[in-house]
Amino acid sequence: MSKISKLVGEVVDGEPVFCFEDDDEQYFSITVRFLDATIKVVFSEYIIQGHYSGKVEVTGYLASDFQSKNNIDFYLHANAIESVDIDTPSSNTLQFTYKVTKVGKMKANKRGVDVLPLVVSDYTSRQTTSVLYLCVRGKWARKLKDMQKGYYITGEGYLKQYRNVYEVIVLNLADDAITETPV
Questions:
Q1: What is the pLDDT of residue 2?
Q2: Could you tell me if 157 and 118 are in contact, meaning their C-beta atoms sit under 8 angstroms apart?
């Protein structure tokens, strides 16, 4: 279900650190800053290229793991990490298709814009459930305020960090954004 996206960011800590082992495959992480979000990028031992530095393009998807009941570890699961020219503009736009698990209450932010929080889920490559957050604003919030959990939502948004929580601020929804089955 996860849609693969390409994000460009500046490496903060490029020394790969061991994260976990799954089915005899080791996974490592580095830290990358993508505009408004500094996040761990997790990748397989099979794509490791040693120490990373400068700007990189990460091809992958947003995921999360539960560390404890109140602590969710968010990360980008990378299928590829490539060095790019320093002049390449940074980006943090994600494509997504997620299953809605909770619809929050629509409220107005400080500027009077309608905001609708959604809790959504997806599956990681490890076949575990990722809990993720979408923030829908303006006309999209008004359109989705009566959305039911269990439906799938498809669109595009950007990654935003708030302390140790990451959310996707919805920029656009697909024409067939709301479906009963994944697109």
A1: 67
A2: no
In this structure, what token pair is assigned to residue 117? 């929080």
Compute φ and ψ for 23, nearest 5 degrees: 50, 50
Q: What stretch of H or E contains 175?
A: strand 165-179
What is the dihedral sign for C-alpha 151, 139, 167, 2?
positive
Residues of the chain with pLDDT under 70: 1-2, 67-69, 125-126, 183
Compute the distance between CA of residue 147 and CA of residue 143 in angstroms, rounded to an integer.
8
In this structure, what token pair is assigned to residue 83? 């060095």
Residue pair 21/27 in contact by the 8 Å Cβ criterion: yes
Q: Write down the pLDDT at residue 161.
A: 92
The three-class DSSP label of residue 1 is coil
